[in-house]
Amino acid sequence: MAAVASPSLASTAARAATIGKRSLNHVRNHHRLLAQPQQGGCLSEASSASILCDTAAASAAAAAAAAAAVPARAFARRAVLTAAVAALSASAAPTPLARANPFDDFAEGQLANKAKFFMGPPALSLERLDALQASEVTLTVDELAVVLGKATLDCLNPRGPLAAYANVRDVCTLNILVRSVTKGPAVTNAAASAEAMAVTAAARDLEKSYDELAAELALDQRGDSRDAAFRKSKVLIRQFAAALLACFRLSEARNAATEAAFPALFA
Q: Which of 45, 143, 184, 233 is deepest in the core (most CB within 10 A)?
């Protein structure tokens, strides 16, 4: 005998089938929704969710644009720096160094100062000869001897204590200068060197001219020969100064500066 289903049981079964069908449709719709391309990586299921989704999408787009712009800005910055360095390299002219060792400059400067000091005695002799030439007609014999000794820097008629000391040692300032620039202590130049021979010969010629001048001044009559004697001594003083300066073996610029400091001596 066939069993007859009760209405309540049949209704329950129908509801279960309907619920199952809806659940299946919901699952299918969910999978279909996931399979569709999404903007910003989120689903817009409600209006508030849609606003959040749009904001996130905009932020993601801005971040992507900024990330793409960074290499471009970095490249532009590198290009500007490279161009600036190239321009500086092209426009900058090489500056030659004066000397590799600064101590050389200092040493030569000290030597140049010493050379200027050694130019003092010849310059003083020249100045005193000018004064003697201008006043010799008014001087007595004794006064003339004293003034001549001063003008020749004790190479003639040594004064005071030098007169007694001259018996045992050369007190002529010219010869003292020559010894100092050949044997030292100012500088050293070998006896056979061109500098030593030149300054020795110049001092000898100048000292000889002083003797000739003294002989001329001892004469009662004053003539053109006296002026010639003065003129000769002055020329030889200048030659001696030039030979003395050459013993220091300075650069042309240093020599020029020394000569400029004594315009009358190197006229």
A: 233
CA distance 135 to 139: 7
Q: Give the chain's largest Cα–Cα span.
A: 191
User: Mean pLDDT throughout 86-104?
Assistant: 53
Cβ-based burial of 240 (10 A; exposed 0-12, middle 13-18, buried ≥19): buried
pTM: predicted TM-score of the whole model, two decimal places? 0.63
From 255, 243, 245, 249, select the one nearest 198 (Cα to Cα). Answer: 243
Please state, in angstroms and rounded to a whole number, the distance separating the CA atoms of residues 96 and 123: 37
Give me the DSSP letters along the chain.
------HHHHHHHHHHHHHHHHHHHHHHHHHHHHHS--STT----SHHHHHHHHHHHHHHHHHHHHHHHHHHHHHHHHHHHHHHHHHHHHHPPP---S-S-HHHHHHHHHHHHHHHHHHHHHHHHHHHHHHHHHHGGG--HHHHHHHHHHHTTTSSS--THHHHHTTTS---HHHHHHHHHHBSSS-B--TTSHHHHHHHHHHHHHHHHHHHHHHHHTSSS--HHHHHHHHHHHHHHHHHHHHHHHTT---HHHHHHHHHH-TTTT-
Residues in a beta bridge with 188: 183
Q: What is the pLDDT of residues 174-223, one digit of tens each?
A: 999 999 999 999 999 999 999 999 999 999 999 999 999 999 999 987 78
What gap in Å lies between CA 150 and CA 121, rounded to an integer? 11
Is residue 245 a contact partner of residue 119, using CB atoms and an 8 Å limit?
Answer: yes
